[in-house]
Specification:
Elements: H1 2-39, H2 44-76, E1 91-94, E2 98-102, E3 106-110, E4 113-119, H3 123-128, E5 136-139, E6 142-149
Parallel strand pairs: 2-4
Antiparallel strand pairs: 1-2, 1-6, 3-4, 5-6
Helix pairs in contact: 1-2
């Protein structure tokens, strides 16, 4: 099962790479817009345009920072760790769905099996943390049994 966790980690890393590349491209576009804005008009219109570009730049910078934090979470996950207790880095099989507690990357398909990569602060993850195999938890007013933890 070590390879399963490794594959999930690789998919999460790929997710982060895609998102950061898109953000960096958008930031590059804003940089070019800012340079073009500097060359064109003057006055209030100029200042408003620059300020809007700066606001967007700050927003993208914050998102980029969040993805860098996700990258550090992924790097801290130990592929060999298998404590049987639901925690960050665990793969959890339930009767309803399969989860990988890591980063909020959404649905991932590995080895023809669907997993939901979720952050440890996600409500369903909070409900599962600290549980062991055959324990149950309640989520969305539904009782769910944990079948297996890797």
């Amino acid at each position: 099962m070590e390879t399963l966790k490794q594959e999930l980690l690789e998919k999460c890393e790929h997710f982060i790479q895609q998102k950061t590349a898109a953000l960096q491209n958008a930031m590059q576009g804003l940089k070019q817009d800012l340079e073009n804005e500097s060359k064109s008009s003057a006055g209030d219109k100029f200042e408003t345009g620059r300020e809007m570009i700066n606001i967007e730049w700050n927003k993208l910078s914050k998102q980029l920072q969040q993805y860098e934090q996700m990258r550090s979470v992924v790097k801290r996950i130990n592929v060999q760790a298998d404590s049987g207790i639901a925690k960050a880095g665990s793969i959890i099989f339930t009767e309803n769905a399969n989860y990988f507690i890591s980063i909020p990357a959404g649905e991932i398909i590995v080895q023809d099996t669907r997993f939901y990569a979720i952050g440890s602060k996600a409500p369903v993850a909070i409900a599962m943390l600290g549980k062991t195999e055959n324990d149950s938890y309640t989520f969305n007013q539904q009782n769910v049994v944990i079948k297996k933890i890797i």
